[in-house]
Amino acid sequence: MDDGLNGLNGLNIYLFNTVLDSIKQSLCIVDNNCVVKYWNTAAETFYSINKEEITGKDVRLFFPDALLPKVIKEQHPFEDVYNSPKKDYYIVISAAPLYDSNNNLIGGISLERDITDYMKITKLLEKTTDNLTLLKQEIHSINHNKYSFSKIIGNNEKFKKTVELCKNISNSNINILILGDSGTGKEVIARSVHTQSNRKGPFIPFNCSAIPYSLFESELFGYEGGAFTGADKKGKIGKIEAANKGTVFLDEIGDMPLDMQPKFLRVLEDGIINRLGGYSDIKLDIRIIGATNKNLKELVSEGKFRQDLYYRLSSVVVELPSLKERKDDIELFVYHFLKSFCMQYGVNIPEIPGNIMNILVNYRWDGNIRELKNVIERIVIMLKSYKTGKIILEFLPEYIYDEYAVFEPEITDDIGISDLNTAVTNAEKKAILMALKRSKGNITKATKILNIPRTSLYYKLRKYNISMENKVISD
Ligand SMILES: Nc1ncnc2c1ncn2[C@@H]1O[C@H](COP(=O)(O)OP(=O)(O)OP(=O)(O)O)[C@@H](O)[C@H]1O
Fold it and tell me: Could you read off the pLDDT of 276-334 as tens digits, one per residue?
């Protein structure tokens, strides 16, 4: 007769132990009083509890929340129950009641799969996925908010006040007129206002001076199918309509043709447009930002710009200072653009020599920030191609360095009477010095003036011990 777990003896026990110890999962067998009858080697290793220690004892003494007592009580199997029996360890338990041949409950068995490594990898994966999501969001926000007030550079007080004003009115629907010379950042400001406004529609720029008169109306207001010869049969929406729920940026607004201005005034007043060749009004939700480097008031007095349009446009007028009015920001811009172009071109960020920074700070910058940005890009490109590792004066565009280059060698007329060889030598030295003076120390130009190869000039400089130390432009 089978007496359950207590019926295991001799060979049976030996075989039983060998089989169960070869299982890689932790295994525990208890009798119907929850007393441990078997504890395999894998369980010993995982829980650091010896067989001798636990066998014959109530499993609840070691594991108060063990699953086996529940299995025995409910006589119900459990499969793949997730548990973390100790910190940073994870298992999946399956447990079932055990019955003898007469179907009497004799105990329970549990098998535990160690999934710690799997859980660690899963957690790592989750973390990596989270990081990836964050990075994606970051990239999205960088790409979509390429223009935002936080990216606008400038510590100049006048400029900071202007930016503050723009920030404050971003959220309202008020029209803005931005005044400033070319390259002072009018479009950057307009785009930042749009980003900050949270208007759902797009930012549509339109340059009033870049569109031929014949296309102006159809480009800005759109047209109905067949409105004019060559027009698309389906018609086309104009820039203003395309910016519905967003912002239209009208650059060079002073150049808007006079006969277009009443039509545009209607957009400003009622948000209504009529496509070219169309009869129905199209109501839009539009914010207008205009910009110009011209004196609009003067254009009004000359009759080139409608006064009512001017007043309507200039609810808020923002004036951007030119770069020479914000000299205190030039160094900041230089370092900002240097860093960003070095990253773009894969060049180590170099120091800027004091004399070069001096030139950059004192230059006129008629083209404002755009011009400065282009000069810094040029410097970085030269740095990359010439692999000098440092910025030299010749990297500056010629029109800038010519203005600042100085080379004042001492040229004496007192050659004196001497033998012919000495006289020829002295004359040659003088010619070289004068050529260098005229070329402001530029070797290439001096060789052209002297009509000799570059190598010859270098040879003669050494021969006559002519130092180029006073020259601002290095060669
Ligand atoms: N405050 C600023 N911070 C960083 N970059 C700027 C700033 N202002 C202008 N820039 C850069 O200078 C360049 C010229 O700016 P933007 O096109 O806005 O000038 P603009 O006044 O609209 O010129 P234009 O009248 O010729 O259209 C752009 O490349 C822009 O990125």
Answer: 887 888 899 999 999 999 999 999 999 999 999 999 998 899 999 999 999 999 999 99
Question: What's the complex ipTM?
Answer: 0.97
Q: In total, how many domains does the chain have?
A: 4
Take atom 27 of ligand 1 and give the residue whose Cα is closest. Answer: 182
The burial of 427, by beta-carbon neighbours within 10 Å (0-12 exposed, 13-18 middle, 19 or more buried), is given as exposed
Residue 140: inside a domain: no
- Choose which residue among 153, 160, 187, 249 to substitute to test ligand 1 binding: the one with the highest number of ligand atoms within 8 A of its C-beta: 187
Q: Residue 236: which of 259, 220, 257, 249 has the closest Cα?
A: 220
The atom number, within ligand 1, closest to the CA of 293 reads 25
The reply to whether 213 and 248 lie within a common domain is yes
In this structure, are 283 and 422 located in the same domain?
A: no
pTM over 0.90: no
The pair of three-digit structure tokens given for residue 474, joined into one six-digit string: 């290095």
Predicted confidence (pLDDT) per residue in 238-269, tens digit? 999 999 999 999 999 999 999 999 999 999 99
Determine the distance separating the centroid of ligand 1 and the alpha carbon of 149, expressed in angstroms.
13
Which of 182, 188, 330, 333 to mutate to test ligand 1, by most ligand atoms within 8 A of the CB atom?
188
Q: What is the CATH number of the domain that holds 440?
A: 1.10.10.60
The answer for 291, left when phi > 0, alpha when psi is -120 to 50, beta otherwise, is: beta
Distance 294 CA to ligand 1 centre (A): 17
Which phi and psi angles does 58 have, rounded to 5°?
Answer: -65, 130
Domain assignment of residue 190, yes or no: yes
User: Domain of 263?
Assistant: 149-319
420-438 and 443-450 are packed helices; what angle lies between their axes, rounded to 10 degrees?
130
The whole-angstrom separation of Cα 109 and Cα 177 is 81
**d(CA 370, ligand 1 centre) in Å:** 6
φ, ψ of residue 317 to 5 degrees: the values are -110, 125
Helix (H) or strand (E) holding 341: helix 330-345
Residues with CB under 6 A from ligand 1: 152-154, 180, 182-188, 251, 293, 369-370, 373
CA of 183 to the centre of ligand 1 (A): 5
* Ligand 1 atom with minimal separation from the 154 CA: 1
In whole angstroms, give the CA distance from residue 449 to residue 431: 10
